[in-house]
User: Which sequence fits this backbone?
């Protein structure tokens, strides 16, 4: 065998070996209901590419049945792991048991499920109750002893963020009898429904004159509501305080314009810690903790919102 043939054979063998190492991961994403969700998708694809992971992406269009079907397909394809952002918290036991029987590790991203923790490898996400509590405590601080009637835009019904962020906010305002949630309704984490529901709140609350603050479970619903408040002739951020969660670029733009007051950050990079945990698990069976928690920092109008907007726009949102 000539040297050239030997070298070509070696390169080909190493190439095949490298390809054999490339892991295949199925990712069942909820959809694209918010700017934050779009960023999570972008960053997950980037992280997979950087790590040489073959990512099979499925957009469930907000439907649990589509996520379950996607997971069944991934299992049939024999992927090396599954990522899923579960649209709601219940109804996953059976499909997770199928993945476990196929010995395919499942990692939850950004939302939790009510299933037995032994049915998934780990969950990467924030402390959703804490996020709501941070928002509630900020409002309590902002209004002092002033009477404050609050309207609340909830996330997707039955999702862990909608359940836990409501619980957390109520913890945050507990002990402040001057603050009362007077209306609360889901707007499904979207801008358009956030605007619609806020319009109904304004109409029901004396044109908005009786509303002191809006608490939205995500920034996108807050941005939609801000539009409704302005169209009602009121000043968001002044006549009606606005506090929400995610820290997407557009909420900082609203803050810079004086139209929003506070947001609690949620990193869209859940895939980084997820792929790190999977790499260790694939390498030598290292079992990660059941919950890998991401941070929840509070940002207000005094935290250079214009600078935050510039720093974040284009990061996949
Ligand atoms: C929270 C995440 C939520 C975001 C929304 O962990 O699931 O879903 O806050 C997104 O923007 O729709």
Assistant:
């Amino acid at each position: 065998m000539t040297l050239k043939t030997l070298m070509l054979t070696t390169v080909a063998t190493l190439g095949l070996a490298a390809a054999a190492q490339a892991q295949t991961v199925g990712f069942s994403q909820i959809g694209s209901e918010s700017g934050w969700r779009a960023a999570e998708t972008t960053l997950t694809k980037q992280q997979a590419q950087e790590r040489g992971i073959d990512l099979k992406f499925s957009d469930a269009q907000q439907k649990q049945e589509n996520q379950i079907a996607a997971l069944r397909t991934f299992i049939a394809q024999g992927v090396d792991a599954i990522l899923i952002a579960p649209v709601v918290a219940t109804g996953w036991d059976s499909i997770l048991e199928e993945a476990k029987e196929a010995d395919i590790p499942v990692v939850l991203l950004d939302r939790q499920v009510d299933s037995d923790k032994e049915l998934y490898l780990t969950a990467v996400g924030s402390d959703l109750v804490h996020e709501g509590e941070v928002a509630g405590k900020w409002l309590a601080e902002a209004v002092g002893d002033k009477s404050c009637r609050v309207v609340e835009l909830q996330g997707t019904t039955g999702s862990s963020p909608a359940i836990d962020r409501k619980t957390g906010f109520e913890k945050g305002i507990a002990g402040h009898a001057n603050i009362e949630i007077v209306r609360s309704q889901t707007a499904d984490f979207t801008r358009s429904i956030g605007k619609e529901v806020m319009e109904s709140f304004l109409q029901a609350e004396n044109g908005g004159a009786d509303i002191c603050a809006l608490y939205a479970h995500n920034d996108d619903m807050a941005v939609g509501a801000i539009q409704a408040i302005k169209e009602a002739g009121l000043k968001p951020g002044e006549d009606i305080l606005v506090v929400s969660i995610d820290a997407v670029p557009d909420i900082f733009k609203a803050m810079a314009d004086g139209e929003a007051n506070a947001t609690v950050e949620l990193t869209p990079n859940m895939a980084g810690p997820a792929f790190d945990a999977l790499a260790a698990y694939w390498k030598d069976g290292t079992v990660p903790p059941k919950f890998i928690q991401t941070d929840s920092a509070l940002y207000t109008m005094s935290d250079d919102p214009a600078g935050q907007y510039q720093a974040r726009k284009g990061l996949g949102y």
